[in-house]
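Researcher: Structure prediction, please.
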Amino acid sequence: MFDVPKNENILNSKQIENMEFMDKFMSRIIEKKEPHQITPEEQEEGIDLQRLMNRVNLDKRWVYRGSFTTPPALEGVMWHVIDDIHYIKPKTLDLFKEQRKDHPRGDARCRHCGGNNRALYPVHNRTVYYLKENQGGKDVNHN
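Model: Predicted structure follows.
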């Protein structure tokens, strides 16, 4: 989960380091560059998803069966929502929003959806689990 800190001065050094990483990672995904604009360092480094996943704490997360976020919103997706917040800078959020502005399946299609691709659907009879790793195994809470 991503958020923009209200005050960067309250972040600890690990959160600041992660924010710098996330900004660089997100920018590399979002920015459109022609092949001649990519630096040798960027080409060698690539977009390393493992480096991203190494920063994500999967020990605490919510899990539920849901649907795709794009029409026709078919069922069959196992969602894992991490409990760990990663901060990004406002400029990175703005860059992301700018990319979505004219996307044919993005915000312009659903103005009342609060930035989502579609309106939120009811929970129905779904069970949401909160998984928390502990030293002896997993604790599971139902909601």
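Model: Residues 2-142 form one domain.
Researcher: Thanks, that helps.
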